[in-house]
Design brief:
By secondary structure, this protein is of the alpha+beta class. The chain is 29% helix and 29% strand. The protein is built from 1 helix and 3 strands, in the order αβββ. A 3-stranded antiparallel β-sheet has the order 1-2-3. It is flat and about 45 Å long. The model has no long low-confidence stretch (mean pLDDT 88).
Length: 70
């Protein structure tokens, strides 16, 4: 059923991206456009999570953000 397909898709996404969510914290500027930033608790990795629109089928070839320092 549709609900099981959706849960399976979320589970697959979490297997790949879970470390950007769990054990991380938001990183300034937090969100810019369709990109959210997190950093792991050891501060040695920064994750950029692209929030695609529902009708987007492919990632953009480039994602631009304002410059900032960690």
């Amino acid at each position: 059923a549709e609900v099981f397909d959706r849960l399976n898709a979320i589970g697959q996404w979490m297997q790949v991206n879970g470390e950007a969510i769990y054990g991380s914290r938001p990183l300034m500027p937090y969100k810019e456009g369709k990109v959210c930033l997190t950093q792991n608790k050891d501060r040695n990795a920064v994750y950029a999570i692209y929030l695609a629109d529902e009708d987007e089928k492919e990632m953009p070839s480039r994602i631009w953000m304002s410059s900032y320092s960690l």
